[in-house]
Design a protein that fits this description.
4-stranded antiparallel β-sheet, 13 helices, 6-stranded mixed β-sheet
Length: 330
């Protein structure tokens, strides 16, 4: 492992690498004999909102822990702002802000006191710290609640205080793990507006882990993970355009039989997913008329839609984007 890491660090810089604030190359992590990450590679550019999208068990949480220096990888390389996350974690932590999915504020302290304690950890003090606290509370809309205990805040306000903590020391990279968990729609919208402001006005690079398709749509680019592997990488628009047609779902009494006969008759790919026949086709509204006429009385319902990111996941993996709690998050 040591020689492999050294080789990656000494690898000649490409044009893409020079623009990358984060570089992940052949990252691997094992839990016993189970691969949580299996050779994942991507880069993240300056002032980019980059999403790690995946269902439970995809490996995105393991990736987050490695990037935030909480875990050492089994192999490969993760470099952020020029620092190796495994070999130079102490210096890297000065350049990253981290907001975890679980609450990390002390609800018995005021907003101001929470930020003061974090500031001391980063070596800030005196007038400099006082100014920075006031600046951050103003930026997240909590100036008027500076003296109030965090336990009196709504979930959205507590999340904004978490953001202020993560940004207090002027990090160039902000790592967010499922940042809108437990927030109402209005608070989610406000958080994403603030992330875009950070990107546009301060040039902060943001990495967000999520299993929510609507949040992934807000990212500049995405890495989609499945069972520890990178299955898709690109902008939401690029990824959806690869399907190149409409997504058709057919509900029938015997979907397996219907799918088989559609394949035979039309020479096209289709699959049964979640009990429905799924296929991709240009001008789907015209095609379904022919299908319904070809198999009278067999099709109970039909839907035609433009592809979304879940369709991209199905297209690449052949199975649904599972989000149920029965699958273990790794």
């Amino acid at each position: 492992m040591a020689s492999n890491t050294a080789d990656l660090l000494n690898k000649p810089t490409t044009q893409t690498d020079t623009q990358a604030v984060i570089r992940v190359e052949q990252l691997r992590h094992l839990y016993g004999d189970r691969a949580a990450l299996d050779g994942v590679s991507f880069d993240v550019r300056r002032a980019e909102i980059f999403g790690l999208l995946g269902p439970n068990g995809s490996g995105k949480t393991t990736m987050f822990r490695i990037l935030s220096t909480l875990m050492l990888p089994s192999g490969g390389l993760a470099v952020i702002a020029g620092f190796d996350a495994a070999r130079d974690a102490s210096n890297l932590r000065k350049h990253i802000g981290v907001v975890f999915q679980s609450k990390s504020i002390d609800v018995k302290l005021s907003a101001e006191e929470n930020l003061r304690h974090v500031g001391h950890l980063y070596g800030l003090s005196g007038a400099t710290l006082k100014r920075r606290i006031a600046e951050m509370l103003g930026r997240v809309g909590l100036s008027d609640r500076a003296k109030d205990r965090a336990e009196t805040f709504s979930g959205g306000m507590q999340r904004r205080l978490e953001l202020a903590k993560g940004l207090l020391h002027h990090p160039s990279v902000l790592l967010l793990d499922e940042p809108t968990t437990g927030l109402d729609p209005g608070a989610r919208r406000d958080l994403w507006q603030y992330l875009h402001t950070l990107r546009e006005e301060e040039g902060v690079t943001v990495i967000v882990t999520t299993h929510l398709m609507e949040e992934a749509e807000r990212c500049d680019r995405l890495a989609i993970l499945s069972e520890g592997k990178l299955v898709a990488l690109g902008t939401p628009t690029e990824l959806k355009s690869e399907i190149g047609g409409d997504v058709i779902l057919l509900e029938a009494k015997d979907p397996e039989s219907l799918a088989s006969r559609i394949r035979e008759r039309y020479r096209i790919e289709c699959a049964v997913i979640a009990g429905k026949v799924r296929l991709e086709r240009n001008q789907g509204h015209r095609f379904i008329t022919d299908v319904v006429e070809a198999f009278p009385g067999e099709i109970e319902s039909v839907s035609v839609s433009k592809p979304n990111l879940e369709d991209v996941f199905i297209h690449r993996t052949g199975h649904r984007f599972w989000t149920d709690n029965e699958k273990e998050e790794i």
